[in-house]
Write a structure and sequence with these properties.
five-stranded antiparallel beta sheet; binds flavin mononucleotide; NADH Oxidase; single chain; alpha+beta
């Protein structure tokens, strides 16, 4: 790939990468991506590095008509964890299923025991695929967020999404129109996470 103007492309890519901010689902409104935009977002995942070409991840879109099934899973998971949960807390857990216009579950296939490509590499690939989608959503003008929580490993969620024994639910990908923004977090300085072999840690 040869950008027409490398300096411009680098500046633009930097703006995009640093411009992506978590916009929590309560601040995401309709409309979500249309069909063509959704295809671009989904195709972006395919550009993720994938050692051994295992395609170790998949995404499950939760359409509006299935949101109530997910809401029940969230509610049941909370009740299982906390038998004292109030009706208000259960209602809040349910409500999380309805927020983002586009809601997808990211699933990683961690692989069979002894597979040449270990779970860590598969998870890295999944993370890259997710980030590609977030960046594509950002450049299309949408807000996005990853959400997780204690229900991710619940039996109810695994059953609803038909997860296989080697599959792990990683997080939900939420995408929609930005209805409100919080000030972004301060990103860490590169010096706080980069060192040189042989130098100080
Ligand atoms: C796997 C994963 C799961 C996440 N789950 C949640 C979540 O449940 N709730 C939440 O507020 N943020 C969640 N986040 C988002 C982070 O909190 C967010 O990226 C962080 O606040 C930094 O904000 P930024 O993305 O704007 O830099 C999750 C992030 C990742 C990578």
């Amino acid at each position: 790939m040869q950008p027409p103007d490398t300096a411009f492309a680098a500046e633009w890519a930097e703006t995009l990468i640093h411009g992506r901010r978590t916009v929590l689902p309560k601040r995401l409104a309709a409309p979500g991506p249309d069909y063509a935009q959704l295809q671009r977002i989904l195709r972006a995942a395919a550009a993720a590095p994938d050692h051994g070409e295992r395609l170790p991840w998949r995404f499950v879109i939760v359409p509006q008509m299935r949101r109530s099934a997910l809401a029940e899973v969230f509610a049941a998971s909370l009740r299982e964890r906390d038998a004292q949960a109030t009706e208000e807390q259960v209602a809040q857990a349910r409500e999380k299923a309805f927020r983002a216009p586009l809601l997808m579950l990211a699933v990683c296939d961690t692989g069979a025991a002894g597979d040449e490509i270990p779970p860590a590499e598969r998870l890295v690939s999944a993370g890259c695929a997710i980030q590609n989608m977030l960046l594509m959503a950002t450049v299309l003008g949408f807000g996005s967020a990853l959400t997780s929580g204690k229900a991710m490993g619940s039996r109810g969620l695994r059953g609803l999404f038909g997860l296989g024994p080697q599959e792990q639910a990683l997080c939900f990908v939420n995408i929609g129109t930005i209805a409100g923004k919080k000030r972004g977090r301060e990103r860490p300085d590169a010096a706080s996470y980069v060192s040189e072999l042989g130098g100080p840690p």
